[in-house]
């Protein structure tokens, strides 16, 4: 659970989603993990028959409220089968869609996209920058106070700050109690400019700590809100490049790369259209159509569950070609990636005994035939 939470943080899931541990004891040992897209009864039976201790799925079993789970219902059969077999169930849904190593990235990699970047970068955690001017001899104390209060944290680093020398000038007026200098006389002090980033939720803590450590009665300081540059490696969908090809040839490549389903794939656009830059979104991605309609640098958009009217209106706007792939097949590409990550994270140098992870080959796409 800790590994999955680290790779696909539950806090990044959409507010309507239901992710995390659905059933099972967090303290129970795990040696066999089955990976699947859907918590379907057939998948639960496979997990039980194989002796899996944990079933990790993409789609939630309980996305909407229920008032009972009798085994006469599909959800109840899934839960009853897993419970009887002592198999836990864990869901990583929208928290796995946007993540590095997530569903959209897996789909893009499967389709051969290079130079990948999020289509819609996730908003970075809001940051401020705190700048303070402090006498040289007191700079280390002030810097340490800011760091201890939560300032200067950048990714996997802490205690990050920048210091530059300068000259401070001031004249204490009547009523002042200057730490340096005398009332009525201009004072010149060798000072350092100390600055660091501050998580916005910690701004008041860091500012108070800085003021408490500063020797001056009235320190000079600035607090600046920083803009999000949109450079996050996480986010909705992915875009990237492929070697120049035609739309028809690219569609054939996609059909070959994805696991086969009866529904197959379909595309809309000129078969001879040149394809160089591709956008993808694992799962149902028509919510991105409006912003993609204005992207003249995207040649084709690959996603699932496109509806008639939105797709038709999108094509009328002259945007990218569309390639509609089966929902299950697109998201299945994530499972081997998780399997590989679990293998690397456990075993020698990892969590202990190697966890055996297996990808379910059961096709849970609802469509069974195409005539």
From TrEMBL:
What the entry lists under Gene3D superfamilies is as follows: 3.30.70.120, NIF3 (NGG1p interacting factor 3)-like
Q: What are the UniProt keywords, alphabetically? A: Metal-binding
Report the sequence similarity comment from the record.
Belongs to the GTP cyclohydrolase I type 2/NIF3 family.
Assembly notes: Homohexamer.
Which residue ranges run through the membrane?
Answer: none
The record ties this protein, via InterPro entries, to:
DUF34/NIF3, DUF34/NIF3_bac, DUF34/NIF3_sf, N-reg_PII/ATP_PRibTrfase_C
Protein name in UniProt: GTP cyclohydrolase 1 type 2 homolog
Superkingdom as given in the UniProt entry: Bacteria
């Amino acid at each position: 659970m800790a590994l999955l939470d680290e790779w696909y943080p539950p806090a990044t899931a959409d507010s309507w989603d239901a992710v995390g541990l659905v059933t099972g004891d967090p303290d129970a040992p795990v040696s066999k993990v089955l990976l699947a897209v859907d918590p379907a009864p057939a998948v639960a039976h496979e997990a039980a028959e194989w002796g899996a201790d944990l079933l990790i799925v993409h789609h939630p079993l309980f996305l909407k409220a229920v008032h009972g789970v009798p085994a006469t219902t599909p959800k109840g059969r899934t839960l009853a089968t897993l419970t009887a077999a002592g198999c836990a169930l864990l869901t990583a849904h929208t928290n796995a869609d946007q993540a590095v190593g997530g569903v959209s990235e897996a789909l893009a990699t499967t389709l051969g996209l290079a130079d990948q970047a999020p289509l819609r970068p996730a908003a970075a955690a809001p940051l401020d920058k705190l700048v303070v001017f402090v006498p040289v001899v007191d700079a280390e104390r002030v810097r340490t106070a800011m760091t201890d209060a939560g300032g200067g944290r950048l990714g996997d680093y802490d205690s990050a700050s920048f210091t530059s020398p300068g000259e401070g000038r001031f004249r204490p007026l009547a009523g002042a109690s200057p730490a340096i200098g005398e009332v009525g006389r201009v004072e010149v002090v060798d000072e350092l400019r100390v600055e660091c980033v501050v998580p916005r939720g910690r701004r008041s803590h860091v500012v108070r700590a800085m003021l408490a450590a500063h020797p001056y009665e009235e320190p000079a300081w600035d607090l600046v809100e920083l803009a999000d540059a949109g450079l996050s490696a996480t986010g909705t969908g992915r875009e990237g490049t492929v070697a120049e090809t035609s739309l028809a040839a690219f569609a054939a490549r996609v059909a070959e790369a994805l696991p086969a389903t009866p529904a197959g794939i379909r595309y809309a656009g000129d078969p001879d259209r040149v394809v160089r830059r591709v956008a993808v979104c694992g799962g149902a991605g028509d919510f991105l159509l409006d912003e993609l309609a204005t992207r003249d640098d995207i040649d084709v958009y690959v996603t699932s569950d496109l509806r008639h009217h939105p797709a038709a209106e999108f094509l009328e706007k002259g945007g990218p070609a569309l390639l509609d792939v089966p929902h299950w097949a697109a998201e299945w590409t994530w499972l081997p990636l998780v399997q590989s990550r679990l293998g690397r994270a456990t075993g020698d140098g990892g969590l202990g005994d190697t966890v055996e992870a297996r990808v379910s080959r059961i096709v849970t796409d609802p469509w069974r035939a195409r005539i």
